[in-house]
Amino acid sequence: MATEFTLPDLGENITSGDVVSVLVKAGDVVEPGQSVLEVETDKAVIEVPCPPGGVIQEVLVKKGETVNVGQALLSLGASASQPAAAPPAAA
User: Fold this and answer.
1) Could you give the CA distance from residue 51 to residue 57 in angstroms, rounded to a whole number?
2) Considering the entire predicted model, what is its pTM?
């Protein structure tokens, strides 16, 4: 099952930023905490890490796009090291 990764809070009074670069593509496996985007705010360029990690199913934003805190950035699936939930046991 896919999980959406959203833009986290970037700091005091920062509500949006512009995507400077997308560091991953669909099919890539990302480790927990690996940077997936660079976003430019009024104050700096910030690398955005993806705490859960997993397999990138779809990148939902592109370079040059303005993104808001809470906006979906990526669709993630479980990686081989993160197995999906086990199916229910047969009765």
Assistant:
1) 16
2) 0.78
What are the structural domain ranges in the chain? 3-77
Read out DSSP for 13-44? Answer: T--EEEEEEE---TT-EE-TTEEEEEEE-SS-
Q: Which fold has domain 3-77?
A: OB fold (Dihydrolipoamide Acetyltransferase, E2P) (2.40.50)
Residue range 18-63, pLDDT digits in tens: 999 999 999 999 999 999 999 999 889 999 999 988 999 999 999 9
Closest CA to 56 of 88, 10, 23: 23
